[in-house]
Amino acid sequence: MKAIQTMEKVLKLRPTNTNYLLTMATLYEEANRLQFAQKYYSKALEIDPGNAHAKKGLKRIG
Questions:
Q1: Is pLDDT above 90 for 9?
Q2: 18-30 helix and 34-47 helix, angle to the nearest 10 degrees
Q3: Is the C-alpha dihedral spanning 26, 29, 33, 35 positive or negative?
Q4: For residues 62 and 26, what is the distance between their CA atoms, to the nearest angstrom?
């Protein structure tokens, strides 16, 4: 998936940007690659423990 490849490059430049991490998580979720989505939602929560989007994403993919 082209969008995932692009985001991987972006995250190499900005690995702690929660918006980029959440975008990556969403892309993986939409591709039904839930293990990878969980990784990026969790990483976003490590950086921003109160992030509601990341919490909802983890709950959704369960």
A1: yes
A2: 160
A3: positive
A4: 14
Indicate the pTM of the whole model: 0.94
Q: How many CB atoms lie within 10 A of CB 62?
A: 6
Sign of CA dihedral 9, 36, 62, 14: negative
Cβ within 8 Å of residue 34, ≥6 positions away: 28, 61
CATH homologous superfamily, domain 2-61:
Tetratricopeptide repeat domain (1.25.40.10)
Number of Cβ within 10 Å of residue 20's Cβ equals: 17
Domain limits, the chain: 2-61
